[in-house]
Write a structure and sequence with these properties.
The structure holds two protein chains of two kinds.
Chain A: E1 5-7, E2 10-13, E3 19-24, E4 31-37, E5 44-50, E6 53-56, E7 65-68, E8 75-79, E9 88-96, E10 102-105, E11 109-113
Chain B: E1 4-6, E2 9-13, E3 18-24, E4 31-37, E5 43-50, E6 55-58, E7 61-66, E8 71-76, E9 85-92, E10 101-102, E11 106-111
Parallel strand pairs in B: 2-11
Antiparallel strand pairs in B: 1-3, 3-8, 4-5, 4-9, 6-7, 7-8, 9-10, 9-11
Classes of the chains: A mainly beta, B mainly beta.
């Protein structure tokens, strides 16, 4: 099973600056997720894509966060402007398994806003 | 909405069995998962169980599901120091919202 590639692995930025994260689910899966994991907590959904369509973005703070998934493969997540509270690990995941019941995660991007 | 609860910390001696517990609130949950996260790493899927099952065994891992009490457990037999990590319980509903809802994780510490 090919993995999920995320970049960068680490990012430190000053508050009010923009930042972008990139995800490639490799073997091209229909369903892609972005999660945010705050320190000491489990991941929480930000957005779910089915191909190019964002089918669940109810948890995405739309005043500063945006995401896109062109051609239904790679995806980018952007924050503009970043706030101190955005410091977290941003995880990308794809669905896999026989019935697409398994979420396979990338290693994440650790964002620190100073 | 959905809620998943886990105890924060568990310490065991190497060679003992570990049991990590989880409770969830949504009776519509269809699949329940256990993920492992080592420091600085992403989430690794360990195992999952369909809601019409009450037990699943996979080598050293045994998952027990009590659907009536909405209680899920993960037993690790012969726990090794390499099992030290944070373990997350998660659930999903395969109709409508399909994203996983995670607990806050249980930190397992294995002492030699």
């Amino acid at each position: 099973e090919a993995g999920v590639v995320q970049s960068p692995r680490y990012k430190i930025i000053e508050k009010k600056q923009p930042v972008a994260f990139w995800c490639n689910p490799i073997s091209g899966h229909n369903t892609l997720y972005w999660y945010r994991q705050n320190l000491g907590q489990g991941p929480e959904l930000l957005i779910r894509y089915e191909n190019e369509e964002a089918v669940d973005d109810s948890q995405l703070p739309k005043d500063r966060f945006s995401a896109e998934r062109l051609k239904g493969v790679d995806s980018t997540l952007k924050i503009q402007p970043a706030e101190l509270g955005d410091s977290a690990v941003y995880l990308c995941a794809k669905e896999t398994g026989i019935r697409n019941t398994e979420a396979f995660f990338g290693q994440g991007t650790r964002l620190t806003v100073v | 909405g959905e809620d998943v609860e886990q105890s924060l910390f568990l310490s065991v001696r190497e060679g003992d069995s570990s049991v990590i517990n989880c409770t969830y609130t949504d009776s519509s949950s269809t699949y329940l998962y256990w993920y492992k996260q080592e420091p600085g790493a992403g989430l690794q899927l360990l195992t999952y169980i369909f809601s019409n099952m009450d037990m699943k065994q996979d080598q050293r891992l045994t998952v027990l599901l009590n659907k009536k009490d909405k209680h899920l457990s993960l037993r690790i037999a012969d726990t090794q120091t390499g099992d030290s990590a944070i373990y997350f319980c998660a659930e999903t509903i395969l109709t409508g919202r399909r994203a996983l809802t995670f607990g806050s994780g249980t930190r397992l510490q294995v002492q030699p």
